[in-house]
Amino acid sequence: MAGDGTGWLWDRGTGARRPIGDGGQVEAAFSPDGTRLVTVAERGEVQVRDVARGGLLVAYSRPELTPVGLAVSPDGSTVAVAVRPRVRGVGPNGVLLLRGSDLALQAEHPTGSPDGDDRPTGVAFSPDGQSLAVPLESGRVAVFAPREGTPVPGPLARQQGNARGAAFSPDGSVLATGGDGVVRLWSVPDFRAVGELPVGQAVRSVAFSPDGAVLAVAGLHQQLQLWDVPGRRPLLQLDQDDTAVNDVRFDRDGRLLSGYADGWVSTWDVDPARAADRLCGVLGPQPIVDQWRALGPDLGDPPSCPR
Predict the structure, then answer these.
(1) C-alpha span between 1 and 74 (Å, rounded)
(2) Which one of 47, 129, 184, 286 counts the least CB within 10 Å of its CB?
(3) Which DSSP helix (H) or strand (E) runs through 128?
């Protein structure tokens, strides 16, 4: 989504794009099979569109609510939308669960009183669809069993400042949640704190790589960070010049996508062998070796190009 709320669907191969929706979209998610696109708009409308044709299939509207997060269950049967009342104190803070096929309302899970500080900032499904994590402005993280709507035993400790961004590891064993300066790691299903990553910035979004070894962190202070999860150590930090990093996601091939407050979207290849092949095709062996060594001695041997 662009910074002005415009929705675009991009063909990564050709670079062609086409608009989706009619403006005001705040977040989007694909169905597991990639044939449908779910979007939520600022005015409280959820839409499902056919990816190939772009046509609207079904919609659900709650104009009294402001959506702030969206997630589709791994089997595509449920759409979870984190919402706040448009007028503070009038309407629920919580999560709406909609049936994936027709967006019929299945349940509403409150996260706190309408005028309290337990307002959601996002939502994430676990890979098995049995848990739903909801970071809150109060710094708490609510975890629900979606079918029953009951809180999962915890409780989770508070983050520093607002809690923003939540992601489960691909194997479902770890939940990462962002706060002010720290990403906390929780074991699943008991949700015990098992580690912290001192990212040093207000977190906007977190995402695990497909193998679960790397965590990408998007930050308010113009930083995109990559962390080694097993080693709890930073791998890379990319400083952006003039804009916050709003969102990060990995695709199925392990490429990282980052979205920015100014509307730009970037794709990063974090696989060393694949990145080396691309560099070899563009630069050639010797320039790569020269530039690699100029970066510093801590990087080890430069990548080798096929002869």
Answers:
(1) 22
(2) 286
(3) none
With contact defined as beta carbons under 8 Å apart, do 84 and 76 qualify?
Answer: no
Cβ neighbours of residue 247 closer than 8 Å, sequence gap 6 or more: 204, 205, 218, 258, 259
217-224 — which CB contacts under 8 Å span 24+ positions? 217/165, 217/178, 217/183, 217/248, 218/165, 218/245, 218/246, 218/247, 218/248, 218/258, 218/259, 219/244, 219/245, 220/244, 220/245, 223/199, 224/248, 224/258
Would the pLDDT of 245 be above 70?
yes
- Give, in order, the Cα–Cα distances in Å from 83 to each of 117, 135, 176, 246: 13, 12, 21, 18
Percentages (nearest 5) of helix, strand, coil residues in the chain: 10, 45, 45
Domain boundaries, the chain: 7-198, 274-307
* Distance between CA atoms of residues 291 and 289, nearest Å: 6
Superfamily of domain 7-198: YVTN repeat-like/Quinoprotein amine dehydrogenase (2.130.10.10)
Of the ranges 87-96, 179-188, 268-277, the best mean pLDDT one: 179-188
Residue 292 structure tokens: 């690699």
Average pLDDT score, the chain = 80
Kindly report whether the peptide bond that precedes residue 155 is cis, defined as omega within 30 degrees of 0: yes
- Phi, psi angles (nearest 5°) of residue 279: -65, -40
Q: Is 213 in contact with 192 (CB distance < 8 Å)?
A: no
From residue 53, give the alpha-carbon distance in Å to each of 6, 49, 117. 18, 8, 41
For the stretch 14-52, pLDDT in tens is 667 666 665 565 688 889 998 999 999 888 899 999 988
- What pTM does this model have? 0.81
Single out the residue of 227, 243, 246 nearest to residue 235, CA to CA: 227
Identify whether the C-beta of residue 143 lies closer than 8 Å to the C-beta of residue 130.
Answer: no
Rounded distance, CA 29 to CA 207, Å? 14
Confidence band for 293, pLDDT divided at 50, 70 and 90: low
Confirm if 212 and 171 have CB atoms less than 8 A apart. Answer: yes
